[in-house]
Amino acid sequence: MEINPFNDDYFMSEALKEAQKALEKNEVPVGCVVVCNNQIISRGHNFTERLNDVTAHAEMQAFTAAADFLGGKYLDECTLYVTLEPCIMCAGASYWTRLQKIVYGAADVKRGFSHLSENILHPKTKVTRGVKELECSQILTNFFKKKR
């Protein structure tokens, strides 16, 4: 029996690498990857400070790059792996991309979409929560402790 190394833990580790890149740029350390057929087709991390743009979240960066890679706006055969639960803006954008699945690490109890409305996602989008939750939470906690 062959073991598939491409699983939720693997891809969330890749998203954590993106969060680390954001941290090194003094951005809120959120990272993500978009995966299609076990291939990472785009990566993203927060760029809000560097671009002076409140919409430059990791997910928005990755959606744009994934659509460019695929040559179309729909990501209905793709999975988003993101270290922090998407906000309502990013969840809304995922609706329009028709994402097949969202996998996130840390919950965002203040601004996460699930605390506001699960109905913001496309009806066909599946959600998996808590993958590598401790690692995803820790990078954010450490970042904000240093800010205070």
Description:
The protein has 148 residues and is α/β, with parallel strands linked by helices. The protein has six helices and five strands. Strand 4 (101-106), helix 5 and strand 5 (126-129) form a beta-alpha-beta unit. The protein is globular. The termini are far apart.
Topology (elements, then pairings):
Elements lengths: L7 H17 L6 E6 L2 E7 L2 H4 L6 H13 L7 E7 L3 H10 L3 E6 L6 H4 L9 E4 L3 H15 L1
Parallel strand pairs: 3-4, 4-5
Antiparallel strand pairs: 1-2, 1-3
In a nutshell, what does this entry contain?
By secondary structure, the chain is an alpha/beta fold. It is built from 6 helices and 5 strands. It is 43% helix and 20% strand.
**Largest sheet, if any?**
5 strands, mixed
**What letter string, H or E per element, gives the SSE order?**
HEEHHEHEHEH
How many helices?
A: 6
* Sequence stretches where pLDDT stays below 50 over 5 or more residues: none
* Fraction of helical residues: 40-55%
Rg over C-alpha atoms, rounded to the nearest angstrom:
14 Å
End-to-end gap: 50 Å
- The number of E-state strands comes to 5
The secondary structure category is alpha/beta
What form results from the Cα inertia axes?
Answer: globular
Strand content: 15-25%
Which tags fit this structure?
148 residues, alpha/beta, five-stranded mixed beta sheet, 6 helices, globular
